[in-house]
Amino acid sequence: MARDQLLTYAKVTFAVVVWGTSFIATKVALRDVSPMTVVWLRFGIGTFILGGFALQRKLFYLPKRRDLPYLFSLGFLGITFHQWLQSTGLVTAQASTTAWIVATTPVFMVLIGRIFLREQFTLTKFIGIVVATVGGIAVVSAGDIASVISGKFGTIGDFLILISAINWAVFSALSSRGLKTYPVIWMLLYVIGLGWLFSTILLFTIGPGLSEVTSLSLSGWLGVLFLGIACSGVAYIFWYDALQIVPVSQVGAFLYIEPLVVVIVARLLLEEAIGPASLVGGGAILLGVWLVNRRG
C-alpha cells in the first residue's frame, strides 16, 4: 500500500473514531441542554477552529456567486439538518445502538456513488456490503432480525438516526463536486459556517436562545468542546481530505468501524451493555470493511 494511501486511511480512521466517540459526548451534553443548543455550540466552536486553519494557509478563496445556493444546501444538509437528526435521535436512542444504525451509511454511499458518480462496483464490494449490513442489523435488533423485518424494533430516535445515515450519504456525494473547485479547508469553512448560520437562526427563532448555555455542567462543557474541536474541526478536515483522493464508496466503508468504537466507549462511560449480537455483528462489520476495500 502506497504511503499516501496509508496516510489517507489513517486520517479516515481517526475521523471515524472521533465521530464514534461523539455519540457519547453528545449524550453527556444532552443531560444539561437541548439538542438545538448542543448543535449550535458545537459548530460555533468548529467554525472558529476551521477559520484559524484556513487563515493559517495564507490563501483566501471567496465562494463564487453561482455556487452560493450549492454551499447553502450543503451547510443545511450536512450540518444543521444532519446534526439535529442525530442529537434529537440520541435523546431516546442508546449511543451504541445509534452507532450501529449509522453503520448503514456506506450502503447508501456505495449506491449513490454507483448511480450518480459512476464509481466502480465489483462483486466483492457487493458481498462486503451485504455482510456488513447483516452484521449491523444483528446489532440493532439485538439478534432478533425478524423484528427488523416486521418494523417493530427501536425507538423514534432510532428512525431519526437512520434518516441521518441516508442524509450523510447524500451530503458526501454532493460534496465531491465542490472539492474539485475549492481547497478542502475553505470548502469546510463555508459548509460548516453556513450550517452554523442556519442553526443560529433556528436557535433564536424557535429554540431557547442562549438561556440554556449557563445550564452546562463541567462534563457538559467538556463534551461540547470535544464535539467542536475534534469532531467538527479536525475530523471534518480529514474526512474531506480523503474524499479528494479515495472514491466515495471506499471512504464510506470506514464508517463500519464507528459502532465498535461506540460500543466500547459507551460500555466504559455510560455502562451500556454489550450483548452477543454486538460482538457477532461487530465481527461481520469488520469483515465487510475488509471486503469492500480489498482489491480485485
Write up what this structure looks like.
This protein is an all-alpha fold and 296 residues long. The chain has one domain. Helices cover 77% and strands 0% of the residues. The protein has 13 helices and no strands. α1 runs antiparallel to α10, α1 runs parallel beside α12 and α2 packs across α10. The chain is globular. The two termini are 14 Å apart. 51% of the residues are buried.
Q: SSE layout and pairings?
A:
Layout: H1 3-30, H2 35-56, H3 68-92, H4 95-102, H5 105-115, H6 123-140, H7 145-150, H8 156-179, H9 184-205, H10 218-245, H11 248-253, H12 258-269, H13 276-293
Helix pairs in contact: 1-4, 1-10, 1-12, 2-3, 2-9, 2-10, 3-8, 3-9, 4-6, 4-8, 4-12, 5-8, 6-13, 9-10
What distinguishing features does this structure have?
single chain, 13 helices, 296 residues, mainly alpha, globular
- The quaternary state of the protein chains shown equals single chain
Overall average pLDDT: 81
In angstroms, what is the radius of gyration?
18 Å
Label the overall shape: globular
The N- to C-terminal Cα distance equals 14 Å
Number of helices: 13
Domain count, please report it: 1
User: What is the element string, with H for helices and E for strands?
Assistant: HHHHHHHHHHHHH
Share of helical residues: over 70%
Give the biggest sheet.
Answer: none
Q: Structural class, judged by helices and strands?
A: mainly alpha
Stretches where pLDDT is under 50 for at least 5 consecutive residues are none
Strand content: under 5%
